[in-house]
Design a protein that fits this description.
five-stranded mixed beta sheet, Chloramphenicol Acetyltransferase, globular, 29% helix, 13 helices, 2 domains, alpha+beta
Amino acid sequence: MGSIAEDYNDFARYQDIFGQLRLLKSYTHFLLCFPIPEGTSHDTIVEGLRSATLKVTSKFPWLTGKVINEGSGKGSSGLFKVAHCPQWEPPNSILRVKDCSHICPSFAEIMREKGPIKFFNPKDLAPTVAFPQSYQETDDDPACVFALQANIVEGGLLLDIAAQHNIMPGGGILQFLSLLSKVMNGGEITTFEIEQGNRDRRNMVKLLGPDEPIIDLGRYRRPSLLEASIPAVPAPHGKWCMFRFSAASINALKKMASDTSKFVEGITFVSSNDTLTSFIWKRIAAIRLRRMVDPNASSKFVRAVDVRPTMGVPNEYMGHMVYNTFTTLTMREVDELPFPTLVSLMRKNLQEDVNEYAVRSFVTLLDRTPDKTTIMYGGEMQPDTDVAFTSLAQSDLYNVSFGALGKPALLRRPNFIPRTTTSMIFPKAPDGSLDVMVCLSEDDLDQLKADPVWSSHTELIDKD
């Protein structure tokens, strides 16, 4: 077993191809909000969290590393790698603790207002920046692979989890949280979990051979940013807003979407995820059409897809396995197509876009492209017409217990720099509801809030 442990400390094994997109040089975040009953010791809670975190990182040493980029220069964006960093290696910890009780709303107020995004200031709650803002690492300020920040507020604890996005996607964070939960509840991390979480990433996806053509991936292309001057803090574009779909609303929309007589050919089933993504796109297109000169302008809807199942990789693997499915129509078509037709088209494109050969093509393209700033999920997004979408709806995170902390009462992201076109569905709550965070221009957001069709199916959480 000693040789295996030493092998896991060879961080060269964690350099993959899938995570080499230069524009992912940032962090992705989850924020778990826990109540802490009156009289409960914060010190005891934090010490339990610290102890569990150390137990997990002792099994997955790369989580304590730093991210470096080597080989960047003329014509090349370089390669992102994990390197050792004593700053976070045991007995040190990747957990930071901060008392926010005098600068953040109380937990009771957060829950009473249902968690509006304005309550979660990243300058207070987050240990790192978040996409789309990048960073510049230095010897004195290295880029951590992974960080947790436990923020104490009156009556609760807000736990921010940050993963460097070249090394770890949202699915990897969910697996880490599964491991943390197990340890905090007295369980043991299994050999299988250790093997998969530390798996050698260098050959995770088999590249296409010289006689295997790459499929057309032009939709992922964008102009190079290699020579561009990127601002340290990007200008905000739009505004975040949180809405809630009740279980009854989701069921009603799913029933509306399930008229098979209006499905596109070859589709017999649509999911709740297909339904909500289509509804979001349809209503955003409808309100944008009111101000557009050309109703035949193209609109693109991009869905992020976890392709671990597609590639035969278990959920215990924490590295990059994210691909996209695209649906492109005119704004008028999105607005006028019958709802079941649009939903079934989204399902059809998902089935046709996401397959093993397509994923191998994408990774091969990345491998063969020195300047990886010319490739990005979604390609070149247009803020007036396009929508990029991520869903965590299938996660069971609300039902995951973290020892003395219990189960999270609310799941959020801090209020990071807004990026118009972005939308995200959070995990399903115990009552069956789903919260959706969207980023639109202020004019579009005002129109969406006033849209009677949208309002009849959603509850506005960010009321300001």
